[in-house]
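Please check this:
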Amino acid sequence: MRWLLALAVWALAHTAVAIDPGSWAGGPTPGLELEDMHGRVHALAHYRGKVVLVNFWATWCEPCRDEMPSIERLRHLLDGQPFEVLAVNLAEPRTRIEKFLQHMPIGFPVLLDKDTRTAKAWQAHVLPATYLVDPSGRVRHQHFGDRDWSAGPARAMVLELIGGR
């Protein structure tokens, strides 16, 4: 049954690539407090004062894998700016994530949503699902499907939130 759910999410993600980012209409920002791969707890509240890109992903999700390098490039481009990335993995074994990270080195925390409760709260029904949170802690934008976060309009959205314009 789990593989059927995974297949459905994968298929939806492939059809969602063309969806433009939209304003968040999901109400108040959901909670986010999860352990990373090293057992350290990360809470969205710890990142107040910064723009946070929250990305829900899985190793089996091809669009997620395609998107990950652009998120890392964006992180490098904004080095020194009040910007952070939190990558939330959906219920995969730690060993599978570790193997993936050996081939996809990234410099941002990978958080473990072991029971997918956080993904459900964030309405991340399609992967990848990415949310931009402003410095006050409010979700401002959401995007379903992969995109190049280091270029063009996506980067401009992040810069606008950093600049407060």
